[in-house]
Each structure stands twice: as C-alpha cells, then as structure tokens.
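Give me the fold.
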Amino acid sequence: MTVDELDIEIPPDRNRDSTPGAEPPASPTPGSDSRDVGRTFVVDEMIAHDARLVIIPRDSDKPPKVWSIHDLRMGALSLDKPMTFSAALENAVPPGAIETSGTFGPWGREEPGQTPLEGKFTFERADLGVFKGISGILSAVGTFGGALERIEVHGVTDTPDFTVTAGGHPMPLHATYHAIVDGTNGNTLLEKVDASFLNTSLTAKGGVVKKPGADGRTVELDVVMDKARLEDVLRMAVKTPAPPMSGALKLTTKFELPPGDRDVIEKLELDGVFTIADASFASPLVQTKINELSRRTQGQDEEQKGKRVVSQFAGRFTLRASQLSLPHVTFDVPGSAVRLSGHYGLASENIDFAGTVFTDASLSEMTTGYKSLLLKPVDLIFKKEGGGSAIPIRITGTRGSPAFGLDKGRVFKRDSQ
C-alpha cells in the first residue's frame, strides 16, 4: 500500500486524563466495535511519502509536536502485533537529517504512551547555528527502546567544529549519553552525559524540560569537571589568539539554559565552585609581575629572582545575564595570598574587584635602600597579626587593560579606627 501525505496522530493516554481514583474505561467486547474488524487485517508493506507524525499534548492550549517524515516504510502493519519501520525525516531544531529503523507496537489503543518501540538512528548535518551564541555541525548515532512515554536512548555525538561565539575558536566536541525521553511531550531526562573537548572532560546529568509559562524547553544540568584544563575552557570563551592562562581546573556547577531568542552567554546561568592548580599566565609581562610579586612578598629573596612561579586559585561563582560574580575567590603565590570579591562582564570585559593582599614580608621589607626606610612608619598601618602585611587593593578596568591599585578608602577607614 502506498500513501501520500499520511498523518499519524498520537493522542494523550485516556487513563491519564481520567479523574483520580476513577475506574479506567472498560475495553470493548470483541465484535462490539467496528474498529475490531481492523485487527483482522495485516498490510504486508506500507510506503508513505511526505508523512507527518503528530504528538497531541494533554493540555489542549498547547500546540502539538509535529515531525515531517519524507519517506516511511512499515512492514506487517496491524493493530495487535509489532510492526517494522524505517524512516527518513527532518528534525526541526536543530535542523538536520534523521534516519531511523526498528519495531513499533502493538498499538496501545487505550494508553498510546504504553506502545512499545525499539530501534536505532543516525542524525546528520545538525546545524547548531540556530542557537544564538554557538555554532557547529553535529552528527549522532544511537539506539532506543522502551515505551512511547519512556524511551531509553543511548547515543554518541560528534561536533568537529563546535564554537562558542564569545570565544570564536572551533574545537572538536565529543559526547556519549544515556537519556530517557517522553515521546508524548518531548521532555528528556539526561541520566548521564560524558563529554570531552581538547584535553578537558566533564560529566553531567539533568534534563531538558518544559517549564510552566515558558515558550520552549529549559536545559538543567549538574556539571562536574574533575579533569579539565583552564586553557581549554578559556579558549572556548575568550577571543584572544592564545588563552591568557593555563592550569589544572576542577569545577562543579549548576547549569541552567532557559529558552528564548538570545545569545547563549546572555541567558546561561551558572552557580558553582572551582579550583585552579599550577596556574601560569601566557603574557610574559603579567607572569613577570607575578614572579616579582612573589619574590618581594617573601622579603626580597634574591634566590627567587627570575624564577617562574605558579599560582593557585579557588572560589565560588555565579553567572547571570553575562555577568560573572565571584563573592569569594583566593589567589595564592609563594609569599602572598590574595582574597578578592567582585564581578566581571563577559560581554563588556569590565572588571571590578576589591580585596586584600596578605604578604609574608612587611612593606619595608619588600623594597631596599631609602624606600625601605621611608616605609618603616607605614608598616604599622598595614601590619597583620603574626607578621607581614595586609594591603587592601582594588582591581578595575578591562580584561585587556586592568588597573591595580591601593584601595585608599579602606586604608583611611582602617587608619581612623
């Protein structure tokens, strides 16, 4: 049998919509419904061109989910036995070509969501550029099985040119995943995602769900990066030719990406903690200043002169509306510890941080000659318990041109006390 412009409409389960505690509707007695006559027929093969699969939601105010199927072939087509199928269709978002085959049925007339299915799929040429803020062409392969309202999916995806617009650096992104999909409403539970890019790997779990009042689906994940490199993450997010810093990164965060026609960086929300070990700066000028800071705050240790030092970072962070806030961050090098709080604009690249530098040496010990003598009286102002200094600082400006200075307001306030 050949059919053109076939509509396959899957309604919501009748029993799910019944009054709680009510008896489910009784199945019709064989022979009492003309539809039972259809159960005596089997179509050996059906070929459909330009078909549509329509999932009708339980909420009548919501539009149905529609998939266009270019070519559909079904074998042993009947109502009370499994049917084989193969299909070629276009996915809407992200746009791409899907090839799938497997078995479907027998059809659950009273509870369509309980209809079993299993099979395999390929997803090619999926254009991620439809999502503002990212781009790349994704491909995927996998298997699925279960019931229509609970489909278990195991898959692998590859995006050789994944790019975040904020950084502009294409990089290969590979992921394996186990998901549970409700085919009656499109909600997806991500049981586990393992992803990797460059020398960084991460794991995530969560879901892609429809929230009340939202026009689209929200991605909610718990993300853990136990084996990551700071330079890889910065390459993804910063436009500089080379990452400004490198180091071993560990990060745990809540990840929420709401729907909407906005850049990913503008709507992405994060809330987490991080540590960076053995960090160093790509800029020779910046790294030299860090080296000198370490040497001076250890008390002008000549043996340390010219020695490259590494830094350690740790802190909490949140990201809202492309504004990165760090309510507490630590930065340690030999001889000094910096405690900061503030924020950084991912789009504007504006910096505004305030904090304190705790040094092993006093201010006078950080210099030589007459400057050391002049700073002796000042040591009392910045003296910290146990020796050394506690110097209030402020960092402003932009990422490309930061300004470091003494926080004079806090100095005068402390001096008056």
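Helices lie at 230-237, 264-267, 284-297, 369-375, 379-382, 408-416.
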